[in-house]
Structures are given as C-alpha cells and as structure tokens.
Amino acid sequence: MSDMMNNNFVAITPEPVPEGLAGSWTGNMGPYLVTMKWQSDGHGLFCYSYGTADVLQKLKFSGGKIQIQDGTKLILKEQNPESITVYAPYAAGKDTVLLTDPDYKNASGFCAKAVNT
Questions:
Q1: Using one digit for the tens of pLDDT, what is the confidence trace for 74-102?
Q2: Which of 100, 98, 60, 56 is nearest to 77 (CA)?
Q3: Which CATH class is domain 1-115?
Q4: Dihedral through CA 69, CA 73, CA 75, CA 79, nearest 10?
Q5: What's the superkingdom here (predicted)?
Q6: C-alpha–C-alpha distance, residues 32 and 53, integer Å
Q7: The whole model's pTM is what?
Q8: Which residues, 6 or more positions from 59, have their beta carbon under 8 angstroms from its beta carbon?
Q9: Residue 55: phi, psi to the nearest 5?
Q10: Which CB contacts under 8 angstroms, 24+ apart, belong to 48-54?
C-alpha cells in the first residue's frame, strides 16, 4: 500500500531496458491475463484483463524495477529470449512468467488492441 500512497511515477526517469526485453510479453498473474509491451528506451504499457475489468497503464523501467503508473512495482528477476520472470514484492507476491508474444496471440482481446498501437 505504501508504494501506491507514495506514488512518484511522474518523477521516475526511465532507463533503457536490458537487451532483448523490448517487445511484447503475456502471462497470468493469478486470475489476471497480463500483457506488457516495452520500448527500448524504458517506456512501456501494462495491460490486464480479468472478468469484466480491462485496464491499461503506463510503465517505466528504472533500477531493474518495473514501475507501474498506479505506484506498484515489479522486479525483473530473469530474462531469456522466450520468457521473462517478474516478482511482485508484496505480501502475497510471487514469481510470474510471461512469454514472448509479438503477435498478441495470447493476450486478451482488449489488451491486444490497446497495446498494439
């Protein structure tokens, strides 16, 4: 809750993402179907769908962390050409694997349209 209450997203200066991270990734975070789209300059989009909820937020990569516009963050733990592993550093946090998804075939319909701009 502290990250959200002390949100400083607009003050974060993004850093270039690690080589190979630019592009689109899709996976499940619990019941949420999540898609991230990264630009090489450290800016990105975070989209998720669950039931009737569809949400699109901006991302910034800084200090090895994925900063989400709502103030929450994820930590990039592992990366290879086919998948990335991120960790949510919160009470119920766990590792989540997202797979490369350049054609948005695994993304929700909403996210496939929202991030493919």
A1: 999 999 999 999 999 887 778 999 999 99
A2: 98
A3: mainly beta
A4: -30
A5: Bacteria
A6: 9
A7: 0.91
A8: 36, 38, 43, 44, 45, 46, 66, 67, 68, 69
A9: -135, 135
A10: 48/108, 48/111, 49/108, 49/109, 49/110, 49/111, 54/108, 54/110, 54/111, 54/114
